[in-house]
Amino acid sequence: MLPLWLNNGVSMPLEEYKRKRRFEETPEPAGKVEKKSAHRFVVQKHDATRLHYDFRLEMEGVLKSWAVPKGPSLDPADKRLAMQVEDHPVSYFDFEGAIPEGNYGAGTVMVWDVGTWQPLSPVPVEGKYLPGTDAEAAAMLAKGDLKFRLKGKKLNGDFALIKMKGRRPGSKGTEWLLIKKHDDYAVDGYNIDDYDESVLSKRSLAEIAGDAGAREWTSSRPAVGRGKLKAAWLADAVAKLDKKRLEEKKPGKKPAAKKKRKK
Length: 263
Hints:
Blueprint: E1 6-7, E2 10-11, H1 15-19, E3 40-47, E4 51-59, E5 62-68, E6 79-88, E7 97-99, E8 107-119, H2 134-143, E9 145-152, E10 156-163, E11 175-180, H3 205-209, H4 232-249
């Protein structure tokens, strides 16, 4: 049986995302379907019921999303299970903070990596995949074999998302594999646990969880030392984090109260 957010295999943008959330209680953005795509991608480390990584590609005005239990890898030998979930709004790409208890996905969220992506043509030329078009990307996604190139702070090079054909008992038909291709960016024995730092705020997951102001999109460190950010959209995201943090530090400004997590 297909999930509710799929209709004959076609996603219904943001309907399921909005249905699951109470925006008066969570700092997550309500968002909207965008008219244009900037081909951004984001990986968010999410300490919810179980620690996992959310891999998102900006496509068709939304963030196509997969939950990756073990996180992405730069080792081509690793075939990471990636469970496709509901589309998220593009404005979610720089969400970092805490989702309060009692809300869907309650827990701490870190922007683990961010950058841009490029679809690759499904047919290789002399053994190499060349840049493709958005139409080819949409067709590959529908077919269940999406090839793309990432240019991020941590993840770079060619990858593939391949939908698993075999249906196990209880399967929802949303199981994919996220696989790194062999190229100059491949790293044998890659260990994602060695990289526990936000690309936006430079905080660890524990630091974000312990920040009383983390219910907002905040940064606990000043912009000094980050270096100049070439991408305007990424610079805007960091600036927004810094501005929110400065607001929290103003005299008389009380941070949002933290709720204790149930054991």
